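User: Predict the full complex structure for these chains.
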Amino acid sequence: MNNTLIQTLASILASSSPLVFAVVGETINEKAGVTNLSLDGTILLSAMVGFAVAYTTNSLYLAFFAAMLVGMLVAGLVAFSSIALKLDQIAVGFVLTLLCTDLSTFFGNPFVRLPGPAVPYLPIPILKDIPVIGPIFFAQNVVVYLSLLLIVAAWWYIFKTQPGLKLQGIGERPAAAFARGTNVNKLRFLYTLVGGSLVGFAGASYSLFVQLGWSYHKTYGIGWIALAIVIFGGWNPVRGAVGAYIFGALQMLGSFAQGVPAFAEIPTQVFQTAPFALMIIALLLVSNESIDHFFSGSPVSRRIWRSLRGAPPGALSTTFEQE
Amino acid sequence: MKAMGERTEPSKGRVEETPRTREGVPAPAQEATARRGAGMWENLAWSIGPILLGLILTTLALLAVGANPVRAYTVMWKGAFGNAAQFSNVVSSWVPLALASVGLLITFTAGLWNIGIEGQIIMGAIFTAWTARTFDWPAEALIPALFISGIIGGAAWALLAGVLKTYGHVHEIFGGLGLNFVATGVTLYLIIGPWKRAGIASTSGTELFRPAAWLPTFPGGMAVGPIEIAVAVVSLVIVYFALRGTLWGLKLKAIGKNIRSAYWIGISTRLHLLGAFALCGAFAGMAGTVQAIGVWHRLIPAISGGYGYLGILVVLLSGFQAAGLAPVAFFFAAVSKGSVALPLDLQLDSSLGGVLQGIIVLLVILSQGVRARVQRAGASARIDSAVLASPVGPTAAPVEANENPPL
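Assistant: Here is the predicted structure of the two-chain assembly.
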């Protein structure tokens, strides 16, 4: 493989890592049956708080911790209102999206366009020298390593462990899980907090790594992309991560294409809007029945297609009353 | 108590036991009539409490950034009601907000989250701008044509989200959201590309429309005129009565409550959903028209003014009631216009207005949940004692509320 390709792959892996955190986090709480729609606002607010804390204390640990706390707080509000108060998760999530966006603008005002600390580059000594794989996977920073670890860990936890089975159970058939002695609502609360903390981590990794610094509406729209990728990934952390990487690759392709003379006629706005048009098309592909017919021709294509699309957890966005 | 009275009837076997216990559940309603006297004060506390708490939290936010809350609120009040011109600004932002909320009420009634309303406002404005740039008609003919263009643009964009939902199974939140960004992209493209001002291509907007395409305003430098106010008021009245007193409104409510049973009793759900989208888009498109020819007199990138998302908050705060839309929209318009003065006078970010609006809506929704929970706890305590007193014993089963369609 030539050097440019390796570098491109490495930078796709790096620039998509915050999105991976958000997607895996949201996958976890949706698997448990709770939709946290506030992602777009949460990522903005945690990005702002992460940067502000890093700027004032100069401690990256504190910054990421504070950002995760913000994510947990917002997720906790969604969980509390849907589990304890039986309110509409969509309504609360949407209000929180707008509120967090405005909070990030209001409190982030003094921190706009300031130079601040960044997550340091940290290649892993021996592994980085492996040809091809080394420079892609092991010449990165802690955030990227953690994002890779998270994908594997989340997949293993959800699909290969006993507690993971319970997690799936409370999202698919809460009544059955409850009958088997699972405290459905307590676990849902817990997993929503876990998901929220990962979303908060995603926010801080934007402002402290991928797009250094803070500015007005900095990551606007990315939370919605993350929510769509969760659906695109069929509520599977690995496929969700693949979706995040595809998105990162397409974004990179877009910025390449803008530099190519043949595409110079196409205005920048088309490239900026493209991810969202793509989001609609991707969702159309994974949720349309007529596509099933198209792929049902041969057993092989049917099998490939079936492995590509996933169904939402049976009790997603519903409340459960324990008696 | 009625629930107790029923229990004195002789039991006729297992079949009737379960429904009878379930009938005991709506006890809060009966209880409420019994305590009507205390209820008024309780209602008042439950509706004013969250708003007060919202103000307290916003005040804390102001103190946190070292601002003087009293001065900030004074600036906001003066910014909204300081003089007649400022008040006319509030009214001019009330009009598109009321139009957006009234449209959203239709989609909410049908159980739809039409987040795509921002894009529908934008498309209405784009279609309006095209008509204003293309036809050299006198104002009497042009202004109705401009409104019709807005209606077509908004409704078409909404139908796109509707078709994605009903035929493509793409949830309206994601379909609509994606279309919002696409609409913004189209606006930017038009402003920088085909509709750029002579010589310079900047994102500040297109050339001003010809004066015939401007909505007339009240004399004395007012920002608002009679036509758009009339459009908003008529829209509010029509939708109020259409949702209340027509078969169409009833069917829409049935779909919103439970789309499956609505389908089984013979309502053409797909057609009604598409109709709800188109109607909401039509009102949103008119909001876009007003923004284009009443406020900015040109097409600008942020032509929607955020009134679509704000409209969702208005409908949530008004409790999905048509009668509440106008006053709540007025309150929101005043907060939004009032906070515009903050950066100039106090170097505070004008997003404070959005913070105040968001916190109040969030707290009102939460307080409704808390109130329902308190009542449920009271009701179940009463049921428990009633069940224990009855010879039959408890027959409670886990209840699974499945109100929201999964994303």
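Chain A touches chain B through 61 residues (CB under 8 Å).
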